[in-house]
Amino acid sequence: MESYKILERIGEGTHGQVVQAMERSTGQIVAIKCVRSSDKASKNLLREIESLKALDSDYVVKLLDHFCHSFSFYLVLEFVASGLLEMLYDDDIWLDDFHLKTYARMLLTGVVHMHATNIVHRDLKPANLLISSDGVLKIADFSLSRLLLTTAVGDDDQNDRCYTGQVATRRYRAPELLFGSVHYDQSIDMWSVGCILAEMQMKTPLFSGDSDMEQIAIVVHNLGTPTDETWPNRNEMPDYNKLKFTHCNPVPTNVLLPDIDELLVDLVGKLILYNADKRLNAQEALLHPYFFNEPLPCLEHLMPKPPNDHRQKLSPKPTEVIESLDKNFSCLYTILDETL
């Protein structure tokens, strides 16, 4: 650790504190994620390392180094100046529709690369999307990611591929996960992408439940009571039949997303579907007419560029940023004193 000088706290990921540091020999500014050693943290950290090592995209945060020291693990990551939430809620930065369209394209391009590598993120949300000083969106925090097991078409063991259902932040969690499914694929990320695209426009979460039950109720109220047509395999969800629903009709997507480009409404509507098999994949979403209609996406070098101290300057912070930056900070410097 003597190779790095700790500068200041940045925040925390799902399982670790994050600080800004300078590499002494080169002067390069980096982000260092510190994770206390534990069985669960070690497993998640190994998955994060393997995912980041396998990915090579301008739209995914870069892993520069990793090592152990004093019963903790450290990931050295490229430093990224700001985040999508900070950009959305900064009154001094004007984001027009073509800027948001470019963020959407960057996100989907990163997801295309991620899914082509058979990696599912499992926690896509605005707080995990960073914005570099060049204005480029980068997917971060792969602590819940994993490599999906591949099976041949017709393989009898295909339905035996099980993954934990306790993934994704509640407001961006696909309905099959809310009902306890352990059989899923990259389509859970695409549900999250749909929620993110809507939130970029509305500046508020699309489905904002404060508990799993409330989240389910909000989703059902807006998408309608599931039917054989909208969700044919719903009875396979472990927790689906534990609940009874009062019948309700779906809210039209243009009512759910008022005063928004009708092509974006169509794109989001094809991502937030009960039936995961019918959700657009990332490549299909990139080819949606929304990205080829006026206003066209902004050229990346013309995107708004946050200052390097953007996180520190932004005040007040949106709720999720506050939670991300301030939770458990009381122990941050204790961790640093003990381990660095």
UniProtKB/TrEMBL annotation:
Keyword NADP: no
Amino-acid positions noted as binding ATP in the UniProt annotation, renumbered to this chain: K33
A Gene Ontology cellular-component term: nucleus
Coiled-coil annotated residue ranges, if any: none
Family: Belongs to the protein kinase superfamily. CMGC Ser/Thr protein kinase family. CDC2/CDKX subfamily.
Name assigned to this protein: Protein kinase domain-containing protein
Domain Protein kinase: 4-291
One function term, GO molecular function aspect: protein serine/threonine kinase activity
UniProt keyword terms in alphabetical order: ATP-binding, Kinase, Nucleotide-binding, Serine/threonine-protein kinase, Transferase
InterPro entries, per the entry: CDK (IPR050108), Kinase-like_dom_sf (IPR011009), Prot_kinase_dom (IPR000719), Protein_kinase_ATP_BS (IPR017441), Ser/Thr_kinase_AS (IPR008271)
